[in-house]
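Intended use. Records like the one below are meant for learning the mapping from a protein sequence to its folded structure. Do not use them to infer anything beyond what is encoded.
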Amino acid sequence: METPLLVHIEGSGLPGRVCPAGPGFPGCENVHVGVQRKDRPGELLGPTPGDAPEARWTLECTAVADEDGDGVAVRGPYVQNRLGGRFVYLSWGTVDEDGLFTMFRRAKLMFADIDPAVLAEAVRSGHLTARLPLSDAEGRPRCARVRPPVIAWSATAPGHP
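Structure written out for the chain above:
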C-alpha cells in the first residue's frame, strides 16, 4: 500500500551567485540550485539563486514497504533509484542570459541515511524534513553524498510550512 509522503528540503547558507575558482573547481557565475527530476538532469524543481537567504522545496512522494518488507521505499518524480538506493539530487548549475541551466555539480541526499525510526514516524505523519547547509567548508556549493550530521532528517508534523 502506498502512503502519501511530503518530503521537505530546507537549505541554508547558500554559497552566493558567484563562486570563485579553487582546487578542482573552475568557479562559476549566476549560480542556482534546484531539485533534479528523476532521469532528467535538465528539469529542475524550484531553481533558486545561489545568493538567496534560503532554499526550500517540497516533493510529493509516496512511501511503500520495500522489497524485503522490513523497510520503507520512498518514490516520486524527483526520487532517483540507482545502485546503492533511493535519493534526491540537488543540482548546482549556472543560468545563462537565455535562462538555460547548465549543471556543474550535484549533492546526493540518500534515504538510506535516515534512521529507520525517523522514517517510520515520517510515514505516519506524512512529512519528512531534511535540513542542511548548502555551502561546503570552503564556501562553495555543497556536492557529493551529504550524510548526517551535515544533513538532519526529521519527521515533522502535518501543516509543516
